[in-house]
Write a structure and sequence with these properties.
By secondary structure, the protein is of the alpha/beta class. The protein is built from 12 helices and 18 strands. The chain has 2 domains: 359 residues, TIM Barrel, CATH 3.20.20.80; 128 residues, Jelly Rolls, CATH 2.60.120.260. Helix 11 crosses helix 12. The structure holds beta-L-fucopyranose. Beta-L-fucopyranose binds next to loops.
C-alpha cells in the first residue's frame, strides 16, 4: 500500500507560528524570518550550466609534473636549474589514452607549481621549458597535452600556482599580480578551450607576504574562457581533505557570508549545508565540492612509491565516497622521469575501470515500472517513470511543500543487486535531506540502505539482495523533491572481473 505523505505549507506555517509563540514565552520575539523562507530560498538555488557540465564529468585527472619529478621532492625551492627538467620519453598522448581508458573526462595539468617552473615557454620568465634540455628547449608540455586531449576527446584544465618561489617580484602586490595575470592570459588564450582553472591556495609558512588579486584573476577567466569552472573561486570548492572523501551529507547549496571574498568556507567543517548552517548567511550560493586525491602517497612521482599505488579496494572506496557523494573525483596520476604514467598506475586504473564497468553496465531498474505517492500537479511529464527511463533530463517531482514521498519500483521479476544509485535533477536545485531504500522480502518491506543528501549522484553499497520490488522513501526534503534517475546494480566478485581482464 502506498502511503500519501504530504507536509502542506500550512503545517509548516503552523509549526513556525507555534515555535515563534514558544520563543515569545521564553523571551523576546525573534526577528528571524520564518523557516519556510529559508527552506524556499535554499531549495531555489540553482547551478550555472557550467557547474552542471563540471558535475556530469564525474571522474577527472590531475597531472602533477615539474622539476620536482627530477629532484624527488613534493615542493620545490624555486632555485632549480631548468636544465634538470629532461623527460626522456614524454608522451602526452599516453597520458590522454590512459585517462580516456580509465573513463576520465578531463585532465588538469600543473602548468606551474609552487617552484615557479613553467611547463610552457612563457614570455614572462626564463624559468621554463625553454631553458631545459627537453626537445632542445623548443618543447611545450601544455601545448602537447592540449593537442592530445583534443585527439582523445578529453577536456583540458590548467593549474597555475599563485604562490611562486622563483619569481623575484613575488611579494610586490602590483608587479607580481601583473606578472601572474600575464601568465594566466597566456594559458587562457593559447591552448584552445579550457574547462577548468585550478587556483591553489597553498603557500609555505616562510613565503613572503603577498595579496593576490583574486577578483582580477577570476575576471580574466570569465572574460577569456567563459565556460571554464574556477576551482577555489566562485564555481567549485575544495572538499576539505586530500584523502578522497566527501562528506556523508555533501551539499552544493551553501551560505556565503560577506567575509569570504570568493575564498573558501571552512573546508574542514563537517557540516556546510544544513539549514542551521544556512540560517544567517547573507547569500545562498551553488558551490559544489571537488575531491582531489593522488593515486600514490605523493602528488609528484617518486620511484620509491612505485609499490605504493593505491589498492583497487582503496580506489573503489574513494569512488563511492566522492562520485557517490555528490562530488567530482579528481584523481592525480604523476608522470615519471620518462614523462610517462608508470605501468603500475596504468595497471591499477585498468582494474578499477574494469570493476566499475562490470558493475554499472546493467541497470536492473532500467525501464522498470515506477509509481509515486504524489506527483507535481499530476503532471505526466514528472511522473515516477521518469526515474527509470534512462533519460537524465526527465525527472519526477513531488510538488511544492510535499517534502516526503514514496516511489515503488517493480523490476518485473526477482533480481539480485548490491548497489543503488539515486540522482536528483540538479538543474532545479538540491533538495533531498534524507532518504531510505527498502526491498520487499518475505512479505514485508525491509530497509537496505539509508542516507542523507543526494544531489547530483548518490551511490549506496549493501549486501546482496534478491527482490522484485523496491521502494524509495524520501523522508525529508526542502520545498519539494525531484529524482532524475534511479539505478540498481550488481557487483560480482572482483577476482572474477580481474580474471577476465588478463
Ligand atoms: C596543494 C599543493 O601544495 C600540493 O603540492 C598539490 O599541488 C595539491 C593538489 O595542492 O595545495
Amino acid at each position: 500500500m502506498m502511503m500519501y505523505l504530504r507536509v502542506h505549507w500550512r503545517v509548516w506555517a503552523t509549526m513556525v507560528i507555534f515555535l515563534g509563540l514558544l520563543g515569545g514565552l521564553a523571551g523576546p520575539i525573534s526577528a528571524q524570518p520564518p523557516l519556510t523562507d529559508l527552506i524556499e530560498r535554499a531549495a531555489r538555488v540553482r547551478p550555472h550550466p557550467r557547474q552542471v557540465a563540471w558535475q556530469q564529468r564525474e571522474f577527472i585527472a590531475f597531472i602533477h609534473f615539474t622539476v620536482n619529478t627530477f629532484t624527488d621532492r613534493e615542493w620545490g625551492t624555486g632555485k632549480e636549474d631548468p636544465a634538470i627538467f629532461n623527460p626522456t620519453e614524454l608522451d602526452a598522448r599516453q597520458w590522454a589514452r590512459v585517462c580516456r581508458d580509465a573513463g576520465m573526462k578531463l585532465i588538469i595539468l600543473t602548468a606551474k607549481h609552487h617552484d615557479g617552473f613553467c611547463l610552457w615557454p612563457s614570455r614572462f620568465t626564463e624559468h621554463s621549458v625553454k631553458n631545459s634540455g627537453w626537445r632542445d628547449g623548443q618543447g611545450d608540455v601544455v601545448g602537447e597535452l592540449a593537442k592530445a586531449c583534443r585527439e582523445f576527446g578529453l577536456a583540458l584544465g590548467l593549474y597555475l600556482s599563485p604562490w611562486d618561489m622563483h619569481e623575484a617580484t613575488y611579494g610586490d602586490q602590483e608587479k607580481y599580480n601583473a606578472f601572474y595575470k600575464n601568465q594566466l592570459v597566456e594559458l587562457l588564450t593559447n591552448y584552445g578551450e579550457l574547462a577548468e582553472v585550478w587556483f591553489d591556495g597553498a603557500k609555505g609558512p616562510n613565503a613572503r607576504d603577498m595579496e593576490y588579486d583574486w577578483t582580477g584573476y577570476y575576471a580574466l577567466v570569465r572574460e577569456l574562457q567563459p565556460n571554464a569552472v574556477i576551482f577555489n573561486g566562485p564555481d567549485i570548492r575544495w572538499v576539505g581533505n586530500e584523502a578522497g572523501y566527501a562528506r556523508p551529507s555533501e551539499w552544493s547549496v551553501l551560505g556565503r557570508s560577506r567575509d569570504w571574498s570568493f575564498g573558501q568556507p571552512n573546508a574542514q567543517d563537517g557540516d556546510l549545508g544544513s539549514l542551521e548552517k544556512l540560517a544567517g548567511a547573507d547569500r545562498l550560493v551553488w558551490y559544489p565540492a571537488e575531491t582531489d586525491v593522488s593515486i600514490r602517497p605523493g602528488w609528484f612521482y617518486h620511484a620509491g612509491q612505485d609499490d605504493k599505488v593505491k589498492s583497487l579496494a582503496a580506489l573503489l572506496d574513494i569512488y563511492y565516497s566522492s562520485v557517490g557523494r555528490n562530488s567530482v573525483l579528481l584523481l592525480n596520476l604523476p608522470p615519471d622521469r620518462r614523462g610517462l604514467i608508470h605501468e603500475n598506475d596504468v595497471r591499477r586504473l585498468r582494474e578499477f575501470r574494469a570493476v566499475l564497468d562490470a558493475t554499472f553496465a546493467t541497470n536492473l531498474a532500467l525501464g522498470a515500472q515506477a509509481a509515486a505517492s504524489c506527483v507535481l500537479d499530476q503532471d505526466t511529464a514528472h511522473a515516477a517513470g521518469a526515474i527509470t527511463d534512462g533519460d537524465p533530463d526527465t525527472y519526477w517531482a513531488s510538488g511544492d511543500w510535499v517534502t516526503a514521498a514514496e516511489i515503488e519500483i517493480d523490476l518485473g521479476r526477482q533480481r539480485t543487486f548490491n548497489r543503488a544509485c539515486l540522482q536528483e535533477y540538479i538543474p532545479a536545485g538540491q533538495r533531498i535531506e534524507e532518504f531510505a531504500l527498502d526491498a520487499w522480502l518475505d512479505g514485508q518491506w525491509k530497509p537496505i540502505a539509508r542516507g542523507t543528501a543526494i544531489g547530483y549522484k548518490r551511490l549506496e553499497r549493501f549486501d546482496d539482495v534478491t527482490a522484485r520490488r523496491v521502494r524509495i522513501r524520501i523522508l525529508r526534503s526542502r520545498l519539494s523533491a525531484t529524482l532524475a534517475n534511479f539505478g540498481l546494480y550488481y557487483q560480482g566478485p572482483t577476482e572474477d572481473i580481474l580474471n577476465k581482464l588478463n
